[in-house]
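Quick log. Single chain, no ligands specified.
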Amino acid sequence: MEKKIWEQNIPCDAVLIRRLQKPAGRIDVVLDTDTYNEIDDQFALSYMIRNEEKLNVKAIYAAPFFNEKSVSPKDGMEKSFDEILTLLSLLGRTDLNASVFKGSETYLHDEETPVPSPAASDLAVRAMQYTPENPLYVIAIGAITNVASAILLNPDIRERIVIVWLGGNAYHWTDNREFNLGQDVAAARIIFGCGVPLVQLPCMGVVSAFSISEPEFRSYFLGKSPLCDHLAQYAIEEGRRTAASETWTRVIWDVTAVAWLLDGDFMADTLVHSPIPQYDHTWTPSSTRHFIRYVYAIHRDRLLADLVHKLAK
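-> predicted structure:
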C-alpha cells in the first residue's frame, strides 16, 4: 500500500536542523491569516508590513474560521479577505492588493485530499521558485488548511518552505483544545508529520504570556497614527466586550509568529521531536520522529517595546 504524503521522504535531521535556524538577512515571506477572527491578526499583519527591512512580503492568504464572527468557514475566510484589504489601505500598501488571495472555503475532509483555493494554488506554485538553501517563509496564524492543501497539491514544496505556525497548546498544558489547530486537526497532522521545516508557537502556556492591558493600548497606540487608532480602538472594544472583570488584558497571540523571524531577543526555543496532534485534542509525544523547533517562552516586554516602536513610527 502506498505511503501517505507525511510518511514519505522525511529529510534527515541534519538537513532539517539547518533549515530551522533563524534566518539572517532579508527574507521572502507569505502570511496565512484569519484576519477578521480576532484583534491579534490585525496587529500581526501590520507588524509584518512595518518590518519591511527584514520581511519582503510576497503574498497574503485569507484563512477560514468559524466562530461567533462568522456563519461558516467560508464566511470567515471572505471577511478576512476584506479585512486584509482594509489594513493594507491603512498601511499605505495597496500595491499588495493583487497579491492577496482567498483561501479554503472548508476544512480538510480527510488527511489526503486538498481543499482547492486560490491561496493553496498560489503557494503550491510560488514556493517552487525557492530552494532549500533560500526558502520561502510561511507565517501561518490561523487554521493551517491552506498550507496543508498546498503541500498535498505539490509535495515538493516541503523542501522549499519553512512554516512558522501559531497553533496548538504547550505540551505541558492539560489539553490541546486550541482554536487554530482544533478547527482542522487533519491539516495539523499533515504539517507535523510530513517533514516540512516547522517552527511551532504554542498558545496556552507559552504565547499566552504576550498580553496587553487597556491602559497600555491607550498609552502606547492611541493618537499615534490612523493605523494605531484603528488597532487600539478595536482592541479596547473587544477587550471590554469579553472582559471577566473591570481590569483586563488581551493576548495578542499572532504577533509572536512574525516576531520569531525578526532580529531580536523576543523568545526562547528549542528542538523537539515532532509530536502527533490527535483528534481527541491531545498530543502524542515522540522520541523518534523528525525535529521541529518549539518556542517555550516569550520575552513579553522586549516584544511589546518593538511592536510599539514599529507600529507608531
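The first strand starts at residue 27 and ends at 33.
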